[in-house]
Design brief:
With about 750 residues, this protein is α+β, with helices and mostly antiparallel strands. Among the domains are: about 140 residues, no CATH class; about 160 residues, no CATH class; about 45 residues, Immunoglobulin-like, CATH 2.60.40. The protein contains 12 helices and 45 strands. Strands 1, 8, 9, 10, 11, 12, 15, 16, 18, 19, 25 and 37 form a 12-stranded antiparallel beta sheet that branches.
């Protein structure tokens, strides 16, 4: 018994040592341009005071509560931080009302006793006399929330800009004077809330975007919650399927002729977008962000073997490294009239992205055919008296050239080709350090020949480059260049199989490079690659690195962004996060796949409308889809190019390998359908244009997409649909010319 107690105590000591170690070297703040908070002019009283205004907007605040109103001068519409009729909500319990009255709900960790507690700014600060409001030189105001029970003060700054309101938690100036530290914060959870008497909807960043309608009565389902750029693999221990996650740091709310687009402009990699429909906790529909400021993980302690993931007694492990995330901010853009729907919001987000990219353009007037071609695969092969895994050719470079020539002769006018498993390191799940085309596929000369052929056919070859992930048994990188988990152990995760989305076998764990090494390693690969080749970033996982070169998620996102910026050659990405848009020309699988969360009502091409003109893009591969006709129709609906995944050899050899999703990708099987579908899509776009400008749902599973010169009505139902005298066949579409 004594030995058991000693073992548990020793385990706790080890865990404490991991969680309390601080970074030995100084770390730079994520944002270096954050202004210090000015003292301002202290405000008091219960009356609402105007603290800033311009030609478009007016901002007022109640000093005693920090509740504010954003007024749109064009039509005098008011966006309230606290619902005006909250007191009359008979459904919401008092605790819920109190949370909606405040601007913050914070999670705090007692670092001494390893306890996590929750506090809301109304009950635990305002009601206890802890609020101070100061005007900021006619630019807005700052609310200082002092939480006396835990000796924490949090400044929240509101700044009125030309056409939007910026709301910022100034993390770098949070005062933590006791044992408690701020772990996370829900921010402005009731701003713009829609009541049961209002018609409207919320937009959430699931894949390419999705709509949750007000009052949709889906109260039996879980609230919507999606982490930006996916879950942090340094904390969850498993990779998540790359098809359904949040790629855009946005959310929005519409109330008829008035809409509000919210862009998470700082700290987005630490954010989660949440949405709650009326009837769950209150009579309001709300969408809002939350931010993780410090990481922690609950682990379990087994009395015999120490720390385990499941079972035993739970223990909270905190990240006590130096805080580097000094700001999180959301920009709220009020929109009116025809700009207030999700199409108008997407256009405004597109303008935001264009401004960041210097108004670059990459969109073509006609769609290209997107191809995802696999060069090789690791398959079992007999060697003497045993079986070993060795690279086996699926598509040699010459065979890939034959595929391009066949499709070109069939009428396909342009291509974007992503070549995977083209190198010895890639096929063996090793780190891609340099340009090393597999000799088994034809070597460098054959690869250059393939690239030249694609260029002659109005296309571009992009070599898939994974400069983050590698097989844990690969010794090409030292431990100093490998990311660490919160307990300082090596970051290892299991890959999710693409065919059934289940965790792969235990033998194939993957590690990730130390985040700060990503740009340097990518530069090495880019510099060794001939200039005529493009590179495609196929893994842009945003994770925390708890190792020696400590990197928070936002810093990792910045490193990936820097990587794309410094490639200095044509670049593409697979399932790209929005921060890459200003650097890439082509996006394979833009927005991934609509996740269809139960509380959602339908998916929308928000990402596609926003990025029109910035990148050429496709949706997911049609021939890997469970419903190929639906996937084809979705590409037309979203104004996207078609994409197929191909191999030259009989891909049945992939059936018992890690790439078994390729078993039905033979080019000979698909070439006729590819030519037919491409010709069909090209004919559609020639008639109506290739620039998607507006989208709406006109009936259940029936959508209307407006382009430059006409519109498409897409009917996903099993019955015919009538629209203004036009009959749309089941699982088909009809064209309306302007």
């Amino acid at each position: 018994m004594k030995r058991t107690i000693l073992a548990v105590l020793l385990t706790i000591c080890i865990v404490l040592s991991f969680s309390s170690c601080s970074n030995s070297s100084s770390v730079s703040m994520v944002y270096s341009d954050i202004e210090k908070i000015s003292d301002g002019t202290k405000l008091s009283g219960e009356e609402s005071l105007v603290v800033a205004e311009n030609d478009l907007l007016s901002l007022s605040v109640e000093p005693n509560t920090a509740a504010f109103k954003l007024t749109v001068k064009e039509n005098n519409y008011i966006w309230n931080s606290v619902p005006s009729n909250l007191e009359n909500d008979t459904f919401a319990k008092p605790a819920v009302k109190n949370m909606m009255r405040g601007q913050l709900v914070i999670e705090c960790g007692d670092m001494k006793n390893h306890i996590v507690s929750t506090y809301n700014s109304y009950m635990d600060s305002v009601e206890l006399g802890g609020l101070t409001v100061a005007q900021n030189e006619n630019k807005g105001f700052t609310a200082f929330y002092s939480f006396p029970a835990i000796s924490i003060t949090i400044p929240v700054r509101y700044t009125l800009k030309e056409d939007h309101l910026e709301a910022e938690i100034v993390v770098g100036e949070i005062l933590e004077e006791g044992d408690y530290k701020v772990l996370s914060a829900e921010f402005l959870s009731a701003f713009g809330a829609g009541s049961t008497s209002e018609q409207g909807y919320m937009v959430v960043p699931d894949g390419s975007g999705a709509v949750i309608e007000f009052n949709n009565k889906k109260t039996s389902y879980n609230n919507f919650s999606i982490p930006m750029y996916g879950s942090d693999i340094a904390l969850v221990d498993k990779t998540i399927s790359g098809y359904s996650k949040a790629y855009m740091p946005i959310f929005a709310i519409n109330k008829g002729n008035n809409g509000m687009l919210a862009i998470i402009s700082r700290g987005e990699a630490h954010s989660t977008v949440n949405a709650v429909i009326s009837g769950k906790t209150s009579s309001y529909n709300t969408v809002y962000p939350s931010f993780s400021l410090r990481d922690y993980k609950t682990v379990s302690i087994d009395r015999h073997s120490g720390v385990v993931e499941n079972g035993g007694n739970s223990f909270i492990m905190f990240d006590n490294k130096e805080q580097t995330l000094n700001s999180v901010a959301v920009e709220y853009y009020p929109l009116t009239g025809k700009n207030a729907d999700y199409s108008g919001m997407a256009k405004r987000y597109g303008e935001y992205l264009a401004e960041k990219s210097g108004n670059k353009t990459s969109q073509k007037d006609k769609p290209a055919l997107f191809l995802d071609i696999y060069g090789s695969i690791n398959a079992e092969q007999k060697q003497l008296f045993t079986t070993v895994l060795k690279p086996k050719a699926l598509t040699t470079f010459d065979e890939a050239s034959e595929i391009i020539e066949t499709l070109s002769k069939g009428g396909i006018e342009s291509f974007n080709v992503q070549l995977k498993n083209w190198s010895s390191s890639g096929v063996n799940d090793k780190y891609t350090k340099k340009f090393d085309p597999l000799k088994k596929l034809g070597g460098e000369k054959a690869l250059i020949k393939l690239s030249d052929l694609i260029e002659k056919n109005n296309g571009k070859l992009y070599l898939a480059a994974d400069i983050q992930q590698f097989k844990s048994s690969d010794n090409a990188l030292g431990l100093k260049e490998t990311s660490k988990k919160i307990d300082n152990s090596q970051l290892k995760v299991s890959r999710i199989r693409r065919d059934n989305y289940l965790e792969d076998d235990e033998a194939r764990k993957f590690s990730f490079i130390s985040a700060n090494s990503i740009p340097t390693q990518m530069q090495k690969l880019a510099s060794s690659t001939p200039k005529d080749f493009g590179l495609s970033l196929i893994n842009t996982e945003v994770y925390t690195d708890f190792g020696k070169n400590y990197s928070k998620r936002q810093q990792t996102a910045n490193y990936i962004e820097q990587t794309a910026k410094e490639i200095e050659k044509n670049a593409s990405a697979q399932f790209p996060n929005a921060f890459l848009m200003q650097y890439i020309d082509v996006a394979f699988g833009l927005g991934g796949q609509y996740g269809e969360y139960d509380v959602e009502d339908y998916g929308i091409p928000f990402y596609q409308i926003a990025t029109k003109g910035l990148v050429s893009s496709s949706l997911e591969s049609i021939n890997l889809s469970a419903n190929k006709q639906k996937s084809f129709l979705r590409s037309l609906e979203y104004g996207s190019s078609l994409m197929y995944t191909l191999t030259a050899k009989n891909s049945l050899i992939a059936a018992n390998t890690k790439e078994n999703a390729l078993y039905n990708c033979d080019a000979d099987t698909w070439k006729d359908e590819i030519i037919e579908k491409y010709t069909q899509a090209n004919s559609v776009y020639e008639q109506i244009g290739f620039n998607l400008v507006h989208h709406e749902r006109i009936a259940q599973n029936v959508f209307k997409s407006d382009f430059d010169k006409g519109s498409l009505i897409i009917n996903y139902t099993d019955k015919t649909f009538e629209y203004n005298g036009i009959t749309v066949q089941p699982n088909s579409y009809s064209i309306i010319k302007n």
